[in-house]
Specification:
Layout lengths: L4 E5 L10 H13 L4 E7 L11 E2 L2 E6 L7 H13 L5 E5 L7 H7 L3 E5 L12 H17 L2 E4 L2 H11 L4 E2 L14 H6 L8 E4 L8 H9 L6 E4 L6 H10 L5 E4 L5 H9 L3 E4 L8 H8 L4 E4 L2 H6 L5 E3 L2 H10 L2 H18 L2 H17 L8 H4 L3 H7 L15
Parallel strand pairs: 1-2, 1-5, 2-4, 5-6, 6-7, 7-8, 9-10, 9-12, 10-11, 12-13, 13-14
Antiparallel strand pairs: 3-4
Helix pairs in contact: 1-14, 3-4, 7-12, 10-13
């Protein structure tokens, strides 16, 4: 298999220092690099000249002078795809930004396309109406043109089953790169809040992550401390949130932390993890918290309930979050932590995730036809699909991401 060439497209790059797709790429390279000839496309905008190494853990790194996120991600992904056509046997594309070019790849080449859907991106509030329209079309073309598509959550699989009559393959994220770390005296000196109980949250500062709701709740709970890590200065929304809530004595807002140990210290020593994401599929920050054995209070959308198997604590508004923080006993939180840890040990390890990706790559290279729903299901309308409970659907609002 070493002579089989695989291109990983759609990440900021390696070494990972941004988000879930980058962490995924890093662990795929780590676990599969000895078996496959892997190339990873990287954004030169995210790495200094000194950081732009040619290889990493056996993978070849290729740099493009574009940002991997925002509007430039379309150019970044498309150029990566075109370049990969000249050498790769299979293209593992993370996200749908370059989806519009994939029908042409299928029409004019025999390259195999494996697409990982990054949640239902076109529903995110951060995009303009034109942006959402493009992402909706790009998603359609990506799913229709791929030889196989990957959903990181059963809810996304149900979504593609109904919308595209295709059978997505569920592969989630690993979390066993996280470590429980006891705080040292030096840690407590750097972060004095480690000396007392606190709730913790880490995420990108975007409306979809319900930052405002979480901060409002803790502004009403002066006896409970919240530590929230995020990129506050990267957007007007982040700066507005920081200005509005940054002066509350029980709310500690920290800038992004990329050092794994430092982040693990803060997560490991909190008494509860708050997960406010309302978009996407299986959020890496959630499975990492679960693997650390933290009790989880999550926003009650289907993606989060699927990830936690319906066994976490859930909120959908400020009052519900306040009630959970005030009313849950230490015993209940400890029990929740044990349940979250058991789920993570069973489902969210990188060896398991890498093995699933390897299986999918082999399947894509070997076969030319994409798996679809059986003819019986493909002719069903949405109502009938829901009646049959294909996957785990229970209601027609399962795909609506609450705002």
């Amino acid at each position: 298999m070493k002579n089989q060439k695989i291109a990983i497209i759609g990440t900021v790059g390696l070494p990972a220092k941004y988000g879930g797709f980058e962490t995924l790429a890093e662990h795929l390279v780590e676990h599969l690099g000895s078996k496959w000839d892997i190339s990873v496309y990287c954004s030169a905008k995210a790495y200094s000249k000194q950081e732009q190494v040619k290889t990493y853990k056996g993978a070849r790194l290729l740099y493009l002078p574009f940002k991997a996120n925002g509007i430039q991600s379309i150019i970044y992904d498309c150029i990566s795809i075109v370049h990969a056509l000249f050498y790769a046997d299979a293209l593992l594309i993370l996200g749908v930004s370059g989806g519009f070019i994939l029908p042409f790849v299928r029409l004019f080449t025999n390259k195999k396309i494996l697409i990982s859907i990054d949640g239902i991106e076109w529903k995110r509030n951060k995009w303009s109406k034109l942006g959402r329209l493009y992402l909706w079309m790009a998603e359609w073309m990506a799913v229709k043109s791929s030889h196989a598509d990957i959903a990181d959550n059963e809810s996304i699989q149900d979504y593609t089953a109904i919308r595209y009559k295709t059978l997505s393959n569920i592969i989630e994220y690993g979390a066993d790169h996280t470590l429980n770390v006891n705080s040292t005296d030096a840690d407590k000196k750097n972060y004095p809040f480690l000396k007392a109980p606190y709730a913790f949250k880490v995420c990108r500062i975007e409306p979809e992550n319900n930052i405002g709701m979480v901060l409002q709740a803790f502004s009403m709970l002066p006896k409970h401390t919240l530590v929230l890590v995020g990129n506050w200065n990267n957007s007007d929304y982040g700066q507005e949130m920081k200005s509005q809530y940054g002066n509350f004595p029980n709310i500690i807002l920290l800038d992004p932390i990329y050092d794994q140990r430092a982040l693990d210290v803060l997560r490991s020593n909190c008494y509860v993890y708050i997960h406010g994401h309302s978009a996407g599929g299986t959020n890496p920050s959630l499975v990492e918290a679960m693997f650390l054995g933290l009790p989880v209070i999550a926003y009650g959308v289907t993606y989060n309930k699927t990830t936690t198997e319906g066994k976490a604590m859930y909120f959908s508004n400020v009052n519900q979050l306040c009630s959970l923080i005030k009313e849950k006993s230490i015993t209940e939180l400890k029990q929740s932590a044990l349940v979250m840890k058991e789920i993570a040990n069973r489902r969210y390890t990188w060896k398991l995730i890498a093995d699933k990706y390897e299986y999918m790559i082999i399947e894509v290279i070997r076969t030319s036809e994409k798996k679809k729903l059986t003819s019986r299901y493909a002719t069903l309308n949405k109502k009938r699909l829901l009646e049959l409970e294909l996957g785990h659907l229970q209601s027609t609002v399962h795909f609506y991401e609450k705002r």
